[in-house]
User: Fold these one by one.
Assistant:
Number 1:
Amino acid sequence: MPELTGPTLPTPPRRTRTAATWLATGAAVTAALFGAASVPATAAPTAATAGPAAARSAAAPDISVADVKAHLNQLQSIATANGGNRAHGRSGYKASIDYVKGKLDAAGFTTTVQQFTTGGQTGYNLIADWPGGDANHVVFAGSHLDSVTRGPGINDNGSGSAGILEVALTVAKQGYKPDKHLRFGWWGAEELGMIGSQNYVRQLPAAERAKIDAYLNFDMIGSPNPGYFVYDDDARLEGVFKDFFAARKIATEIETEGDGRSDHAPFKDAGVAVGGLFSGADYTKTAAQAQKWGGTAGQPFDRCYHSSCDTSANIDDTALDNNSDAIAHAIWTLSGGGGTTPPSGTSFESKSQVAIPDAGAAVESPITVTGVSGNAPSALKVVVDIRHSYRGDLVVDLVGPSGKTYRLKDSSANDSAADVKTTFTVDASGEVANGTWKLRVQDVAAQDSGALNSWKLTF
Ligand code: DTR
Ligand code: ZN
Ligand code: ZN
């Protein structure tokens, strides 16, 4: 959006978080050594040999808000090292493109950098395609990566850029195989009037444009005094987001101030169905909105909009977390419930149900693996089926035969959704495959409980 001028405002007071201390990182696959918990063993599982055992993961995985914030910290460092901004035509913008591209290339995306010129300066769009899926049906998520010249642009729009980046990287971590083709875009020169996204849409042949089933735009998703606004340009896409927030009991409003004010506009003008999320800019939060969303009435959603104080301190973590999870929900939902990369080889499964005590000791479920030669793979698939009324209470670990623990899922104060039914991918190449593996689950917060229904290892 054209750069607006106005007073530089002090950084707003940060919203206090709930008192509970929680681990907010998501499904890490790095190994962390924990002490063994003393818990009763359960009945021996049945070993099952199977061919491809694709686990259809209809539910999107939790997006690690810690990982999203790590990207924001990188963008902040880039701005700090490049004159304080990441604006079009400045070194900080190209450095931002290089950072995002490097992450995606390493994760297996097919990336393209598209150049354009505006204001006498070279601009860049970054497009990343996840290999596979029906190329005639594209689900497209985009965010502008440029800031205004006055500041680092961490909420506007590092937040959207980091949110879709972490969703893309989670697609790769999960080995997600969607029915439709996934594409992600990071746009240049949005602040000059959506120049980068206009350039992309204009150069796209009509036949390619027609293949885009949905373009989802995320421009400001972590505002410090946040609102939860859903674009209402397309009823189907609006419904996907509203369903997500309803399940988390978060009220939403339709986004009304942004028509034409961000990168969804060129796609909509070209006849593409568009949707998206917005947490608010320089408009003032009303008392009614503060009643349902918390925060401060009478103050802007983002007092540092287009200002030098739009730094990494200018983010509400809860809004960033909820909106990043909403992006993943939309991507998984709209791309058809494809499974993860179908694991081939031998599977070992336990169907012994194990009760998970509320705020209690960790419980374990063992699987004894035999007949697999050598070490476990670097992409060991762990399919987990846990019934629970508040999955944010749960910490889930895989314990290898050596006793080494691999963190699959941390607890999260903000993940109020039910159940953990997903496939984790773990680098367990340091473990000998044969031996007793254990899934360790602990409920670390009061008021909700559940049970492990089953879990499966595929080598
Ligand atoms: N155009 C965005 C900020 C913005 C203002 N209103 C809306 C509504 C919907 C999306 C974005 C916005 C910018 O300054 O980058
Ligand atoms: Zn802006
Ligand atoms: Zn923006």
Note: The domain at 65-334 is CATH 3.40.630.10 (Aminopeptidase).
Number 2:
Amino acid sequence: MKNISKIASGIEPSATLAISELSKELKAKGVDVIGFGAGEPDFTTPDNIKQAGIKAIETDKSYYTATSGILPLREAICKYINDIFGVQYEPSNICVSSGAKHIIFISLQVLLDPGDEVILPAPYWVTYAEAIKMCGAVPVILDTTEETRFKITPEQLESAITDKTKCLILTNPSNPTGMLYNEDELKAIGNVIIKNDLYLIADEIYATLVYNGKFVSAAAISSELKERTIVINGVSKTYAMTGWRIGYAAANKQIISAMANYLSHSTGNASNVAQYAALEAYSCDQESVKKMNIEFAKRRQYFIDRVSKMDKVSCLEPDGAFYIFMNVSKTFGTELCGEKINSGSDFSQALLKHGLVATVPGIAFGNDNYVRWSYATSMENITEGLNRLEKFLNSEPTA
Ligand code: PMP
Ligand code: GLU
């Protein structure tokens, strides 16, 4: 038989989803594992949003919709963006998709030709590099360290630009580090983008999950930057709606119409029913979001307080999202619970085996001195997970 495509055979599976599946599988087998893998809120979708979904089923919202999404939803998204982020768009600037992940994929398909380069600051969210490769394009990784709070500098960006560079992907706040670019930093990066005639994919899916500092959308920096920016967002994280699969892109009309063409030949419209639930999410008062954020803030504080008392691991205080990017490099060259630790991957595997705690090794995000913990799980799980971590660091197994 002939081989499957070169592109397909070069794609790695999503490590974040794999870890979360593994911990669910272990749990189903009766193993008492605690999952800190996928970044998925443990809260249930707020009731009013669920009811809107139920009503959509009962009122027969069961047909195809406009490919880029129902007009009321695109109108509600425009109003929401204006109210929350102070940026003005029209419905024709919005394309709704089956999750933010999909519209990131479509954005790259629309912007890139084979051989184009995309600048990707590391640590990066696991999906970007693979989605770039799916276009036959090349991710150009810019490494960052704790010294710059994992943020790229304009000089660093400038020095990575070649004739083939098409765009930069910036996640703000970041998954996996939780770091937030402030307005001045965005301006400086935006100037480099404009000067070099690049596009910016601004993944702002964690924009409402900020505990330290003020979130500013890249599209709010200037009209020039807005024109060449694709803003990505969606309902998954903000409204605890990961399984409903609704995301959107906001961009100039040419890009949006090219995206709609792509969608029209691939998934078609996002689920009609889920669009009505998202319409409720974006139109209702945001009280449930505030309540969830208060819980996330408590968990974050508890997590960083506990880690600050541990001497073999450390973390920077994240500004936003719901991840702790834990530096485990001090354990390298030692043995924990009888396992040699020389990388984040070793650490993560040994912690799962002996501590019954699932984390994502930093290699999935481009830096294997770290492991990522999602604190989108209950305080009870966080407390017990950190107890198990402490035991593991003292080479006392839980399993
Ligand atoms: N961007 C980032 C940075 C993420 O962490 C996620 C998590 N799933 C997504 C996009 C995609 O979200 P979804 O497809 O659930 O809308
Ligand atoms: N984005 C989340 C994470 O990074 C969910 C998993 C995924 O979609 O990859 O864990």
Note: Residues 14, 16-17, 38-40, 101, 125-127, 175 surround glutamic acid (ligand 2) (CB under 6 Å).
Number 3:
Amino acid sequence: MDHSGWLKRYRLKPHLPRHVAIIMDGNGRWAKKRHLPRIAGHRAGALSIREIVRLSGQLGLTALTLYAFSTENWKRPRKEVSLLMQLLKQYLRSEVAELLQNNVRLGTIGNTGDLPREIQEELKNAIQITSRCTGLNLILALSYSGRADLTEAVRKIAKKVKSGKIKLASVREETIAKELSTKNLPEVDLLIRTSGEMRISNFLLWELAYSEFHVTKTLWPDFRTPHFIAAIRDFQKRQRRFGGVESVVGSVISWAR
Ligand code: FPP
């Protein structure tokens, strides 16, 4: 079935967000409610990832960025961090064939150099294998910090100014955007956060400037197709003005920025 077939099946309007970002929260609470260890919540969360990635590809989204591991997550108990890393490794190994089959191209943002070497290898492999895919861009934010990404961008720009490569007066918003790890991705149109928390948690600080927010009480392991469709329907109901007065429908409207 092509993208429009899927849109019809889910009774969605044609104007979709191009780029959806998700703060996947609530795995621990999901497990606690069931008297299970936290890792059981993360494991169930990985199944939600599989379903949402497949659906995003079917609908024809350009990019899906998932907050899989923040720099703050390193502060969790060693055991949990190590189990999360194992899960990530398993995910990459078991999902690569499915990604390829669904024409999904994998990418990352964040300091992946902080990850265990074997994960780095697994990532490199999955990124290389899916590099020719032309459908959805799946971006995993790993050891990611929005502030760190901005700090790094500032450092790179300062270096260029210092060496005379660019003039201080020519530093514009685009200069910064071009130095961020998200530089090749469209603007984030929709941010989804599960488990009801009203925080950005150091995610895409610059990139969320004009995003629509959809916060749901649903815990991430319970977040499946109907919840994602509801989030997109919610997005489709919004009137996006980008700070102006025009009512604009659609995703990337550069003149309005
Ligand atoms: C938050 O739940 C979730 C994370 C720590 C990141 C998301 C991780 C997964 C979905 C696991 C699988 C990941 C991959 C890429 C295979 P939490 O532990 O903060 O939940 P809580 O707030 O209820 O404790």
Note: The chain has one domain: 16-144+188-238+252-256.
Number 4:
Amino acid sequence: MRHTQFLYKPEEIEKIVNGYSEIIVLADENTAVHCLPLLEPLLKNVKQTIIIGTGEEHKTMQTCEKVFEKLMAVHITRNALLLNVGGGLVCDLGGFSASVYKRGIDYINIPTSLLCMVDAAFGDKTAVNFLQTKNIIGSFYSPKTVYYLTDLLKTLPQRQLYNGFAEMLKHGLIAYADYFEELCGINLTDTEKLLPYIQTSIDIKEQIVEEDPHEHGLRKILNAGHTIGHALEATQKDIYHGEAVAWGLLAEAKLSHELGILPAKHLDIISACINKYYSNSKPQNIDYHKMLEKMKHDKKNTDEYISFSLLQQIGVCGYDIELELDVEVLERILA
Ligand code: GLY
């Protein structure tokens, strides 16, 4: 059985939202302009539209407080629905706000970026950042539905497509070698052709989440590429999450190979694929010391050890691999 319900047809979402006493829409400054107009025909009875700023610096408890203030101002009941229309920030922060407001109200995610469609919109993780630490305050709380309005993909700039595509490559790398091989050959400009691949990525993540919803074990393979990826994201200027994850996947594959886990021929295939799609965003002027500090403070780690999910081959990933990393190794695997 699927963990989350997924909808693709406007009639289906219309039927669901009409069952609530009040609908509150949460959007950001971009999605309010570019995406809400596409949804308006489906959305009658919207009591309030809350618009938050774009960018990671807005993923805070302060923004949550603003959301709570607005919810209180319109006196919503517990039978209200929060409709999150946006990328990871809106879906994560909206999901978290819904999980605690009046001890939990329903929410639906309508992801507007490829990154969010294949990752943050489902899997029940909600979060905000706190004291410079990413996603440290959060909860596991399921959206009632995730609605895929795939027409939104047509409006996305190319860099945004690559941003989400890295998570799709990760899905192939950790769980499905043939899928990874297919992804390495596709042309990202044709968004219509992306749809079946998006579905495959959703299926892969869903299966993993179903087996381990609270990340006690297997779900950690979804963190492949993210130990180094998050540190790159935190220390590089102007790098997108997906770009950091792509280079994180390659660096961690090199680490796995150095440890004698990943065979050379698999590393070569991964390297060719990442370089094919992401050579324009290769991290420059890396501050390895700062990266290492960030990695040590990640919530997944204990003491000095850094926890990795490392590929054993394309399509197979291990987790809970604890390593003591130094600057020289980091420099070598990011070269
Ligand atoms: N984004 C990784 C996960 O949902 O577990």
Note: The chain has a mean pLDDT of 93.
